[in-house]
Amino acid sequence: MADLKVNGKMVSVSEEDLEKSLLDYIRNTLLLTGTKNGCNIGVCGACTVLVDGAAKRSCKVKVSSVIGKEILTIEGLENADGTLHPLQQAFVDAGAIQCGFCTPGMVMSAYSLLTKDPHPSREKIKKSLSGNLCRCTGYQQIFDAVELASEELN
After folding, report:
1. Are 38 and 64 contained in the same domain?
2. pTM of the model
3. I need a surface site. Which of 36, 128, 146, 154 has the fewest CB within 10 A?
């Protein structure tokens, strides 16, 4: 057995789960289904989670490579009382969610950016989210949401 921390809780990983993708482990073993499987080849960003604070495509990461590390999924952002994190709320307020499929990956990429740069420029936001695909919003509302969250958080 090996351990990793997911959303602040220690999780014991069985030997048979070590070669699974982190995406499959999160969704099918831990039953945290907020992280989405968009392409399963690492290009759409829907499966983005944070590994020790860095945004990673969980479909391309083996569980064995994150043993001893801290994983943060979209479920781990909500407040203790069950309310949305200010970044999640900003996505709602800015109309940055339509079908919602890409939203968890977008939020996690944006969260990673805001932890490193609390006041990013619009250009930096665009660059940070360039690996996350959305077919519904046209991206402007997503960029607006990150700017709104930056203001709210600071």
Report:
1. yes
2. 0.95
3. 154
